[in-house]
Amino acid sequence: MHAEKQNIGYKAEEKALSFLAERGLKVVERNFRCRFGEIDLIMLEGEVLVFIEVRKRKNRVFGGAAASVSPAKQQRLVRTAKFYLLGCAHIPVCRFDVVAFDGTECQWLKNVIEVH
């Protein structure tokens, strides 16, 4: 079951990557991991560094894919992004997006996480 979920997640990330690349974003890194967590995709949209969480659900029962990015998950993403930025020579303008797949429907939610 774990391998099946990983495969579903990988396919969703591939679809998200293609979807975003078609809209002009350029990949910087995939599956960035550190002790704080993982960021699925890190991409550039112009000069903006975009940290992207990809979510996949069969349908919108229980709120759907976008709703599954809990406040705790958001905070892990922020900590992971801050760690990533430690390795940057200069800190670019950043934002956090979610690409949510509910069944075959794709939603791109921009700038969804508040950083404090």
Termini distance? 37 Å
Class by SSE composition: alpha+beta
pLDDT under 50 segments (min length 5)?
none
Q: Within the largest sheet, what's the order of strands? A: 1-2-3-4-5
- How many distinct domains? 1
SSE pattern: HEEEHHEE
| Average pLDDT reading | 91
- Count of β-strands: 5
CATH class: Alpha Beta
Organism: Oxalobacter aliiformigenes
Family: Belongs to the UPF0102 family.
Protein name: UPF0102 protein NB645_10250
Pfam families: UPF0102 (PF02021)
Question: What descriptive keywords fit this protein?
Answer:
single chain, 116 residues, alpha+beta, Trna Endonuclease, Chain: A, domain 1, five-stranded mixed sheet, 3 helices, 36% strand
Write the layout of secondary structure elements.
Layout: H1 2-22, E1 26-34, E2 37-45, E3 48-57, H2 64-67, H3 71-85, E4 94-102, E5 105-109
Parallel strand pairs: 3-4
Antiparallel strand pairs: 1-2, 2-3, 4-5
Q: Please, could you describe this protein's structure?
A:
This protein is α+β, with helices and mostly antiparallel strands. It has a single domain (2-109), classed as Trna Endonuclease, Chain: A, domain 1 (3-Layer(aba) Sandwich). It has three helices and five strands; from the N terminus they run αβββααββ. The protein has helices spanning 2-22, 64-67, 71-85, and strands at 26-34, 37-45, 48-57, 94-102, 105-109. A five-stranded mixed beta sheet has the order 1-2-3-4-5, sandwiched between helices. The longest helix has 21 residues, at 2-22. The model has no long low-confidence stretch (mean pLDDT 91).
Structure summarized in a few sentences:
The protein is α+β, with helices and mostly antiparallel strands and 116 residues long. It is 34% helix and 36% strand.
